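For practice. Any example?
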Amino acid sequence: MTLTSIADTVTLNNGVKMPWLGLGVFRVEDQIEAANSVKAAIKAGYRSIDTAAIYQNEEGVGQGIREALKETGLKREDLFITSKLWNADQGYDSALKAYQTSLDKLGLDYLDLYLIHWPVKGKYKDSWKAMEHLYNEGKIRAIGVSNFQIHHLEDLLKDAEVTPVINQVERHPRLTQQPLKIFSESHGIRLEAWAPLMVGGLFENETIVRIAEKHQKTPAQIILRWHIQDGVVSIPKSTKEHRIIENGNLFDFELSEDEMNAIQALNQDHRTGPDPDNFDF
């Protein structure tokens, strides 16, 4: 896979193009901090921003988008904005209402991608029907899911009229999610990594450090390059401008097949976040 620019995109199963790299804003609850992070990312070349209703920062993200567009001369359609349907809002009617609430908070007319945040048993199918309705009405450019295991996807696909474009899951070298990746891709569903850097937990790993030294890159850059070179969209989170810029500097080197395999071999099926089969929120 040839990747030469932070503007490079992957074509999703409905033809919509999504950047390989985006900015995540999980746990950035201060609205000003969220706005500044988003603005810094867009000015640094990022075109994809990922938020969620439960992050409670959609207003700040929207402010950052507006300020960045004003300062850069970019247009709304140059950006790819994602938000997510929270668990308490799942269900048909409540999902429709929640989508409009997210739009209002963001100050946008549409989202590029809207995801079901977690597979809430007994509710995610009704939520999906609502999202299909919004998609068919042209109010969302693409719809997908987050934290869905293989059996959740199998269940959803039994009745779905629209196949999810994305499955956003925890994914890093200690949790490669290879069976899920293979299943998702076999149905045209692209995997997207949250916590792609394992919250910094691999920055001193011997294998990662060795590869980083060889390429004169940071461990974070090596891990992010591994994700996108492996065909996985990635949304690292940072509030520091220099780190945001650094995380985006992935396109002047390439990992070898041996290096890709060495990173893949670090897998231990280790989660830092909740288990999608056992959560109570």
Observations:
- Residues 170 and 252 are 26 Å apart (CA to CA).
- Residues 19-264 form a domain with the TIM Barrel fold (CATH 3.20.20.100).
